[in-house]
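Task: fold both queries, return tokens.
Query 1:
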Amino acid sequence: MNWHEIVLATIAGRATGCLPFIPRMDLWYKSNKHNKTLPQAYRDCTLKEITRDLGIGYHAVVPDFRDFIKTGSQALLALGIYDLNTNPYQVDLESLDITYTIKEGITKTTIHTPYGKLQSQYLYDERMQQAGASIGHTVEHLVKGVKDFKAAGYVFKNLGLGQNYANYRKFQKFVGSDGVAVGFSMLAASPMHHIMKELMSFESFVFAFNDHLKEVEQLAQDIEVFYEKILETVLNSPAEIIFLGANYDSFLTWAPFFRTYITPYLKKWSNLAHKNKKFMLTHTDGENKGLLEEYAASRIDVADSICPKPMTSLTLRQVREVFKNKITIWGAIPSVCLLEKAMSEYNFEKYIHKMLEDLGDCRNIILSFADTTPPEAKFERIVKVAAITKAFKPTTRTGANEK
């Protein structure tokens, strides 16, 4: 089986005869490429060439958030929308009065609406490039308070959307048999999550949520118009796995909030994905205590970037017990394992072998470093995990998951 087949079989719960190792290494690669600190043997290699040489899969889950499809796509960063070459969709701004400027790493976006002016500032600078990051930081949020809700709702209701299937197929062709080109939709899992995560500062959101819930829910309904367009486009695309939602945390997206405003949305689109013979993936990095049951209820197929102890409070065994082989874990190795300053060589090897014990029958597991391989990672440890997984022989797996 090639890596493409292994990923899809693992998610479906079918036997593959191996323990898949497909680590996310994009930030590590970009940072070290930018800083000219790649391992000597790989100084002139692409990331895909490195993974092939190591005999591991190519991670094509999280996109390059700087790979804009057109001039003007950067203006959408203010809206928490990433208009990328590798997306199955592209965004049309023609119906909006929107302008932007870029100066000293700050993208300043201004949108004029019948309900007033909106303005945002988004930072992406040299320090972020050095760190390998492709997502910047919002220094001025588009929505400051309730007074901006109608204007923001107007913007989302008037955003146009089209297919980008030709470019997406090029992405699939590039990834080929080395992995699966995941179809990206949105970083926020639902319209309400989008308000919290992208449009407002967390503090402003909490005040609005508690003092003006009716108005916040109305804005979420306005945003849903755009979400529906995106997800329907992605569902009808050639994508085999759909990416919806990321960056949860039991403090920021507390369980009752998740249960009311995120779980139903993930469940709706997971069910539709299954009807279209596709898998649903959500990016579950962060502290997941109290949220595992919500992931199970949402009927997602892949919990990407599960990060257990010592970086969070949950062990891998605890996560596996809740998921019960109905959700595939893509992750399981905390990124601190790769840092000499955080973990000695002895403790690294001890941790990896204990992790293998906790995998049980290894069903529905794709190993990766969660959330990602850090730029300062000791490369020899990546090589060592690759060698261990190649030699590891899981127990026979039978049957398939019921989705």
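Query 1 returned. Query 2:
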Amino acid sequence: MKVKAVIFDFNGTLFFDTAFHDIAWAKTVKEITGSKINDEIRIRLHGSNNAQTIHNLKPELSELENEYYSLQKEALYRAICLENPDKLHLVDGAIELFQYLKENKIPFTIASASIKENIDFFFDIFSLGDYFDINHVFYDDGSYPTKIEMYQATLKDMNVDAKDCIIFEDSKTGITCAKSIGAGYIVGISKEALPETLIEYGANECIDHFLQFNYEILK
């Protein structure tokens, strides 16, 4: 395939932060429901936006209460990130890939389920402005029912067809959404999930970090 654009998910893909989210969600779930987080809830936390997740936890919450818990959870998450400076870095090989894409004039951006406050945090902490235009980064602003719609908006903004695009994802939801829009190539990345699991979801290949990515695919 002739690659015309690259889209990166962020959390769990460019930044291995699942453990930080799990801690923040555990405290938030306890406050919302009065119960400890369990495996069933933990599985449902990844890949959905906060509003839907919190609604599933307690449907009777008002929109304002839902937003309150969402913002509180993300503020807690950012605080946990800052408490772990040794883990506050992009996945190995990510910067090198950004540089390659930039030098070879292959458009690339981020489509993330994170909220604006987190995107601003990531741009500050990781100096993402050196590689990405924040005005063309897509995130959870409440207007995308699923990642499918977010991908579609991203592709429209980049003026490319899905079949000409590589998408990097780490979750079942993200990978299946990328597959459903007809992404030309899907790379699953995870240091936790088994490669065969991500392939089962729809990834074309799986890597542990970006140093394993085959640049020949981009040529």
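Both queries returned. Flag for query 2: The first strand starts at residue 5 and ends at 8.
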